[in-house]
Amino acid sequence: MAPSRRWILAVAVLASAAALGWRWASPDAPLPFEAAVPAPTWRSDGPAVLIDNAHWNGGTAEGRLAAFAGLLTADGYRVLPGANATRAETLADARVGVVVNPLGVVGTVRRWGAEIGAGGWPAFDDDGLMSQEIETTAQWVENGGSLLLAVDPAPYARGARGLAERLGVGLHDRLVVDVGHSDGPDPSRLVFSRENGLIGVHPILDGWPGAPPVNRVVVFGGLAMAPPPDATILLRLSPSAAEVAHPGDPPTAGRRAQGLAMAVALERGRGRVVLIGDTELLTIERQKGVRPTGLSWPDANNERFVRYVMRWLSRRDAR
């Protein structure tokens, strides 16, 4: 399909999606972060964090990431007004850039197509970021910036694949399930703990004098990623983990995910990067029949994990 025809069709589909959006809208707004942080990472002069909102993101500070933005503020960071976190002029003001599910217009069409059962549209297989945006972000990291990239399985994963690959990480797009390491009956609600050996060794996880380590993280339906040799796997997928094409598919119908990761940390040039394969970790969201998921999940160190990710990215360990 010619680019002009594709964009015309994209606009038409988006207009239809907007008209029918109420059918898929969540009945509950994302919940804010209302707890206190007893010992903030930054007590004064906290670094600036820029959360991207320029790519039809499936997560912004004004929407799903309200709890994440609130946690950052409580932890002493300065959350900048939302802007394009892949442009040099806006990144110049930030210590840490955060990009969550960058869909772009074409990716948004992919998302709505998946909602109505018309996924896999090859005409809309573009990345959520332009090639120049990918290169600008990568160079900013290499020159000393820090980036948090969080992505969900299809139809979201395609939008961030180019940026992840530029940083050396291969993003998969299928949902990961693991009956042997799940929290409750949902096999996509995965547990990573010191007890089951799926938590790695890294300053993000180990804590520091006077601060406890991360002992247990629960994710809520994430994707797998293939880390480069120089990356540290923070959350490792077990030999029994599998990637399935659709929620509800049996694990035996999926691809083995052994050796892959749900979260990794790496350095590029003078900069630092963390990739997480589940954006719900950065939220507090209601789900029918269970307590709010994400940062506030009971019997897990999800909030601590996210705080320590940002601590490492903001180089608090260097002071």
Written account of the structure:
The model is unreliable at 7-27 and 121-125 (pLDDT under 50). 48% of the residues are buried. The strands form 5 sheets. Strands 2-1-3-4-14-13-10 form a 7-stranded mixed β-sheet, sandwiched between helices. A 3-stranded antiparallel β-sheet has the order 6-11-12, with no helix packed on it. Strands 5-9 form a two-stranded antiparallel sheet. The radius of gyration is 19 Å and the shape is globular. Helices cover 24% and strands 19% of the residues. It is of the alpha/beta class and 319 residues long. The chain has helices at residues 3-19, 66-74, 88-91, 104-115, 131-142, 161-166, 203-206, 302-313, and strands at residues 48-51, 78-79, 96-100, 146-150, 170-171, 175-177, 191-193, 216-218, 225-226, 232-236, 242-244, 255-256, 261-268, 271-276, 284-287, 290-294. It starts with a helix and ends in a 6-residue tail after the last helix.
Helix content bin: 10-25%
Radius of gyration: 19 Å
What string, H for helix and E for strand, traces the elements in order? HEHEHEHHEHEEEHEEEEEEEEEH
Number of helices: 8
Fraction of residues in β-strands: 15-25%
Unreliable residue stretches: 7-27, 121-125
C-alpha end-to-end distance: 54 Å
Largest pleated sheet: 7 strands, mixed
> What is the general shape?
globular
Q: Mean pLDDT, as a whole number?
A: 87
User: In total, how many beta strands?
Assistant: 16
Helix vs. strand class = alpha/beta
- Strand ordering within the main sheet: 2-1-3-4-14-13-10
